[in-house]
Design brief:
The complex is a heterodimer of chains A (451) and B (483). With 451 residues, chain A is an alpha/beta fold. Chain A is built from 14 helices and 17 strands. The longest helix of chain A has 37 residues. Chain B folds into three domains: 49 residues, no CATH class; 255 residues, Type I PLP-dependent aspartate aminotransferase-like (Major domain) (Aspartate Aminotransferase, domain 2), CATH 3.40.640.10; 126 residues, Aspartate Aminotransferase, domain 1. Chain B starts with 51 loop residues before the first helix and ends in a 6-residue tail after the last helix. The chains are: A alpha/beta (451), B alpha/beta (483).
């Protein structure tokens, strides 16, 4: 069989083997002992043509079904301008490696510089890196910064209202390292910040909180930055980047570290990945922030150019003393967010955030009128809210019947936390993309089921 | 010509995108509850205000100042810059995959789950391991995950004194960094005269304080660690585990497996070996694969095939937990699966054997002109040393690299591994034809010859790019990291 991704003809192979001075390709594997060389081909299927693969994948794809998504929990269905996918598909972006050779990678480097700038503008922070894997991993990197920032510290405080998966990634981060994740309890759906003083022990390095939190609720962090700083601790705030068009920015709360996902700004749902994590910090933490950073400088003729910089923090220079092991990040996803933000501008971002807010409240207001479901807490939310059912059977029926009508009605919180206490909680997310018609469809179905 | 920042083209009132008008009943907005002013944002962010065509021209221009595999030969050692099939790009844009929410009912996501499950099966076969996890988003993330599992394994066994991870001097920088992130002490293993693991040094450092040895095989000099079976039995005899850095798997796919070599856990770089694009530095994907010993420690959830279809299994008490927000970089996994389907068992073997053929051919074309200190026969890559050129003519590895840029090539990896002074590490991959390799070799030799005559010329390279060599010191001393 001829493989189109391998250009060699028989004649090429013959000439190449001759030049090398061996009689077969197998001879090049002579440093592998007999018992290592496979006698059979590996047990996977034979190769297929493009058309065969396309047909096969299309058949598999039919086993996915889409509905009108009112699903969130860290991944949202927002409107995306057509510029995003088309420009992010340009092959010189897609097929490039990390821009190690600055002179031939100015375009890519400038994209990252613009991304960093926008992240700083939106979070209000001083310095952004070139992206991290996702918001959960960005929170784990924030924990690492905290521990290294405060001498002899070993614990990081985390709010119980943080996304359940972020909490799980943080617990994995701590496993076996001697570090500890300690939870601040919640009260009425938000972090019980009254407990903060008591929990700020000597060994605590900082606090990680999230807004909108795991229920979609907005948290009030007034005063906590000062409390933390007085004890030498750092504050990290995790946010959906789009929510910052409306709520206070991490910098305005006095945070030292801002983390989260940029998914709401230009990235598809895509079964949850690739997303794009962001991290921005105050200037004081410039040497501690992990990952790639692009900076502007000049060449010998004084022309402005961009290059990877502050690399003394990184693994390829510092090895085990690096601030993180991160090498590849989510560059192409960061490009998509950059194109998205370039297309929307601040006005568009505010519009998307505001419409999401209004539409979510419209749906919530009408659902709250129905029997058997309540909005329990009187706390402001943005585009996602917790609907609490009076019984589990009814909730299952609700989800099933709406799914039958092509509506994905929400995410069951217990599916993420695996906790009995969350079994009756449904998280409903509404973005600007949901039309009036879709909202009314949801309401009509809900009225039918819950009557 | 340089491209201005888009923010500098901004003009108040210009728009590149319009949202549909809000069509809720009149007055509903007024009825909204108030968010306390203390929780609302005050300061607007400065983002570009431009027209759609401005956005299109800006990013199109920037793409012309970027260089990918589609633009030309990219022999960047240890990065496996092979061709990224267009079929993968096409399939990764199918709405049936891009519009699936990670938390929608799994009965409605069976297609995506089936791709992940079947990819895991194929990757298990290719690596000779039992099973794995697709959650890690990059190679280094896979290393982190694998080492975390090793940590959990020894905690479970009560062997908490195993605090060291051994890493050869030639290893990728991520190896020691990943070990340190998991709280291990890193101990460096020397290389012998051939460039392989120094067996005496290894023996002297193996004891009951060692948790694992991390190994890339073939190593970063492009040499197969021929003592691997002896190494693995030594490590296992001392009670430690063996970690395989899959960055160089492209040399041996379908020819041999890390499982047969005795490795307990490994990560793959789907964005290298399995042809998914690098995207200018990600998103990649770094699945971890394990043998039976470590399987209980895999991240959760696991994917299972049950009577009711594919399902996630969360009830895994020894699992290290989650390492990603959701299930991994799905669209990257999808592309890798397309690649595996396309190539099949014979195809992946052909990919590796031709990668090795290409590396040896390129080496044969260059060895009369350049010093290649390690290896007579190599695997998928090899390392040139420019040390003698530097002594004789003052030409560095960087000078040669910059000269290549002017000729339309992406340079090899520079100054790595540190074992080789003035290193240039070349990995042509199987994608390149004999004509491309010949042209590349001729160019490299011509650059060398010209540099010997006129070293100053090469010092000024590159000449054809929008900027010349940049002032890195200024970039660090006067950080300009945002507009």
């Amino acid at each position: 069989m001829v493989y189109p991704y391998i250009p060699h003809t028989d004649e090429d192979r013959r000439r190449m083997l001759e030049a090398i001075g061996v009689s077969s390709i197998e001879e090049l594997y002579s440093s592998l002992t007999e018992d290592l060389l496979l006698s059979d081909s590996v047990p996977i299927s034979h190769g297929r043509t493009e058309d065969e693969v396309l047909r096969m994948i299309t058949a598999i794809a039919q086993r996915n079904s889409t509905g009108i998504p009112f699903l969130g929990c860290g991944c949202y269905d927002h409107l995306v301008p057509s510029t995003v996918q088309t420009l992010a598909s340009l092959p010189s972006f897609v097929t490039a490696y990390t821009p190690y050779q600055a002179e031939m990678s100015q375009g890519l480097l400038q994209v990252i510089y613009e991304f960093q700038s926008m992240i700083c503008e939106i979070t209000g922070m001083d310095i952004s890196n070139a992206s991290l894997y996702d918001g959960a991993n960005a929170a784990a990197e924030a924990a690492t910064i905290m521990i290294s920032h405060k001498r002899k510290s070993s614990a990081v405080l985390v709010s119980s209202t943080i996304h359940p998966f972020t909490l799980q990634v943080l617990n994995t981060w701590a496993l076996g390292t001697g570090h500890e994740i300690r939870l601040i309890p919640e009260r009425q759906g938000v972090t019980d910040l009254k407990k903060l003083d008591d929990l700020l022990q000597e060994e605590v390095a900082g606090l990680i909180v999230q807004t909108p939190n795991r229920y979609g609720l907005l948290e009030d962090f007034s005063g906590i930055a000062d409390t933390l700083h007085a004890k030498g601790c750092l504050l990290a705030i995790s946010s959906d980047l789009l929510s910052l068009a409306m709520q206070k920015s991490p910098a305005e709360w006095g945070a030292d570290i801002a983390v989260g996902d940029t998914q709401a700004l230009g990235l598809p749902l895509a079964f949850g990945g690739p997303s794009c994590g962001y991290m921005a910090v105050s200037t004081a933490l410039m040497r501690k922030i992990p990952g790639r950073i692009v900076g502007a400088t000049v060449d010998k003729q004084g022309r402005r150019g961009y290059t990877l910089t502050l690399q003394a923090r990184e693994q390829h220079i510092k090895r085990e003393k690096a601030s993180s092991n991160v090498c590849s990040n989510q560059a192409l996803a960061a490009l998509m967010t950059t194109i998205h933000l370039s297309s929307l501008g601040w006005g568009g971002m505010v519009e998307a955030a505001k419409q999401s807010y209004v539409k979510a409240h419209y749906l919530a207001y009408h659902l709250a009128q129905l029997p058997g479901m309540t909005l329990v807490w009187d706390v402001p939310f943005w585009c996602e809210f917790p609907l609490v059912f009076s019984d589990a059977k009814k909730m299952r029926k609700f989800l099933q019947e709406l799914r039958n009508e092509g509506i994905f009605a929400g995410v069951r919180l217990s599916g993420l936390t695996r906790q009995v206490k969350d079994e009756l909680v449904l998280l409903v997310a509404v973005t600007e993309k949901r039309s009036r018609e879709e909202l009314e469809l949801y309401l009509a179905a809900a009225r039918r089921v819950m009557k | 010509m340089s491209e201005p920042l888009l923010i500098d083209k901004s003009k108040k009132g210009r728009k590149a995108y319009c949202f549909p008008a809000l069509d809720l009943p009149r007055g509903f907005e007024q009825a909204l509850p108030d968010i306390p002013a203390s929780m609302l944002r005050v300061k607007a962010a400065r983002l570009p205000e431009v027209a759609e065509l401005d956005v299109v021209r800006h990013f199109t221009k920037l793409s012309t100042q970027s260089f990918g595999v589609d633009n030309g030969c990219y022999p960047l050692g240890s990065c496996t810059m092979k061709y990224n099939p267009k079929l993968g790009e096409l399939i990764a844009q199918l709405p049936a995959f891009t519009t699936i929410h990670p938390l929608q009912d799994l009965s409605t996501a069976q297609g995506s789950l089936s791709i992940m499950y079947n990819l895991l099966e194929d990757l298990s076969s290719i690596t000779g391991m039992s099973w794995g996890s697709l959650q890690p988003c990059a190679g280094a993330h896979g290393e982190y995950t694998g080492l975390k599992m090793i940590r959990a394994y020894f905690m479970k066994k009560g062997e908490t004194k195993r605090t060291k991870v051994l890493v050869p001097i030639s290893a990728h920088g991520t190896n020691p960094a990943s070990a340190a992130m998991n709280g291990f002490d890193v101990v460096t293993i020397a290389s012998d005269r051939e460039g392989l693991v120094d067996m005496d040094d290894l023996a002297s450092k193996l004891d009951d304080s060692v948790a694992a040895l991390m190994l890339t095989n073939p190593n970063t000099l492009g040499l197969f660690e021929k003592n691997i079976l002896k190494i693995s039995s030594m490590v296992h005899a001392s009670g430690g585990l063996l970690y395989y850095d899959g960055a160089n798997l492209n040399a041996i796919m379908g020819m041999a497996t890390p499982g047969d070599m005795g490795f307990d856990v490994l990560h793959l770089n789907l964005h290298k070996t399995f042809s998914t694009p690098h995207g200018g530095g990600g998103p990649g994907s770094g699945p971890v694969m394990v043998n039976d010993i470590l399987r209980p420690f895999l991240p959760k959830p696991d994917i299972e095939l049950t009577d009711g279809g594919y399902a996630y299994s969360w009830d895994r008490p020894d699992s290290i937990g989650k390492v990603s927000m959701f299930w991994g970089n799905f669209l990257v996994l999808l592309r890798a699966y397309v690649y595996v389907l396309r190539m099949g068992s014979e195809g992946i073997r052909a990919a590796s054997s031709h990668a090795v053929l290409n590396a040896n051919y390129l080496k044969s074309r260059l060895e009369k002109h350049f010093d290649i200190p390690y290896g007579t026969k190599v695997m998928h890559e090899f390392v040139i040393s420019c040390e003698s050129l530097k002594k004789e003519y003052g030409i560095t590895a960087q000078d040669i690299a910059k000269g290549l840029i002017d000729e339309g090539y992406h340079p090899p990896t520079m100054y790595f591994p540190s074992l080789v002074p003035e290193a240039l590490m070349l990995e042509p991959t199987e994608s390149e034809s004999i004509e491309t390799l010949d042209a590349f070799a001729d160019t490299l030799i011509a650059i060398l010859e010209r540099a010997k005559e006129d070293p100053l010329y090469l010092k000024g390279a590159p000449y054809t790019t929008p900027v010349g060599r940049l002032d890195e010191v200024k970039a660090v001393k006067e950080p300009d990291l945002r507009y």
